[in-house]
Structure formats: structure tokens, C-alpha cells
Amino acid sequence: MKRGIQYLLKGLTILLPLVVTIALVHWFLVTIESWLRPIWETILGTKYYFPGLAFLSFIVLAIIIGFSARWNFINKLWELPGNIMHRMPVLRSLYGTITDVFDLMSGKSFSDESVVLVTLPGADVKLIGIVTKKPGQKDDRLSAMLDEDHIAVFLPMSYNVGGYMLIVPRESVEKLDMSPADAMQLTISGGLGKNRQFPVNED
Fold it and tell me: How many angstroms separate the CA atoms of 27 and 73, rounded?
């Protein structure tokens, strides 16, 4: 009986990540299909529409938007809907949180040396963190609170969508050669994920 439970748990650890990943991908594809299919059927007619066209058009649209965002005046047009949401009381928090998460995972707005090891004061304990703000950033409320010797570091929590934001002295951090996305994955999984080895940069 005990061995059977062990086999069951081992099987679940193999199957569940696959099932959840496939379910999320399926949800994304179905959502895109349900949104864009009526538009294509109106343009082409149901006779000429084929499954997958909606998703392909979504990918092409994303590439076009990303390409056109190189020009500042067009980029401002794409940012207009987001700026409107930022002014709406309920949507502001939801949209802002989602965009912050995507920025964090993509590494946007971070320096090349944004992932660090933070040594807690008076202890030998080290935590993996992501530098989110440095002093001197224009029109940023948190940056204005920092003096030249301190930076803001986000410490993600393992197996939880959350973490802590600390303001620490620069001397308390060591730079790591790792992307913010890799740092998040490593930390959230509690170090159990199959992450590649990374070197520590010596100052």
C-alpha cells in the first residue's frame, strides 16, 4: 500500500505539471479563437475560415505592434488604452499588477545586474532578490525615497505569489549573472526546479 502511494505521488508529479501547462495553453488558444474568429468569418466567410487562423493573426498582430512601437508617437498610441485603465479606480490596481508581473518576468526596466544575493544584516543568511529601484530615477516616488547608498530589492517567496520589498545598503548585495525570470523561477520553486548553474560575479 505504501509503495502504491509512492508510485501515485510520483505519477502525479509527472502528470500534473503537464496537465496544468496544457490546460493554460488550451485556455489561451480558445480565448484568442473565440475573440478573433467572428471577425475573420465576417471578412472571409465561414467557408474560407480554417482553425488556427485567429491565433496566427494574433501572433502577426503582436509582431506588428512590437515593430511599430519603435517609433515614439506610435508607441504612445498603443499605450493609450493602458493609460486610461491606470486612471480607472478598479482596473488601475488589476492592470497595474498584471503589467508589473510581465515586466518583472521579462526583465523590462531592470538593469543588466538586477538579480542579487542579499545578505541580511547581522547574519550569514543570503536571499535571492531582484533590484527594482535605484536612486536618481526621474518621476519615480520610490526612487526619490532612496539615498545614494541604498537600493530597493524585491524578495520573492517560495511556492507563493508574493514577497517582500526591502530597502538595503548597496554593500549588502552581490550581483548574480541571472535574468529576473530565472531568479523568479528558482525562488518560487524553492530551488527544486531544474535550473542551470549560474556564476557569481566577483566585484
Answer: 34
